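Appendix B, record 7
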Amino acid sequence: MYEIAIISPSVRKGRNSHRIALYFNELIKAGGMGNPRIIDLLEYNFPLFEERLKFQESPSPAALDFAEKIKSADGVIIILPEYNGGYPASLKNATDLLISEWRRKPVAFVSVSDGPFGGTQSVTSMLFSLWKAGALTIPATLRLPHIDREFDAAGKPADSEVTDKRSSNLVKELLWYIEAKKRMDQ
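Structure tokens (predicted):
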């Protein structure tokens, strides 16, 4: 089974997007689609970006741990809450820390918001950032609007039948890219 990292980037009080990380963690486990692992940026408390990890003289244990989790994952799902039309600074900070760890890493996006558009604007800027780092950003994305009322605090969706189908399709697309990359690396 493939290792799938799920990045939960919001570090805000009262964050709702973490519900989606919890949901994907359970969906992937229950569906036997891989071994998921949530990477919660709230637990890292990274300082403001100063330099890429590989150029730091004394990197923090948290930075080394984050880098190892991304490097060892076969694929990554990034939960993308939208803040003022972009993604959170905590995510920009964490993604810029790494470079080689992103190279040819299959990455899927799940954009989320409390509003009706599901965080669509955050995808464009995140795509460009990871494209520049050499990640394999998959073309399929999932947009989840109104997460404050569509998911409970534990990540259970109000309409699990529809949500599970749409979300499983995204995970399957990510798995296709992971498998394709594995074959090309042989």
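Remarks on this record: The two ends are 17 Å apart (CA to CA). The first helix runs from residue 18 to 30.
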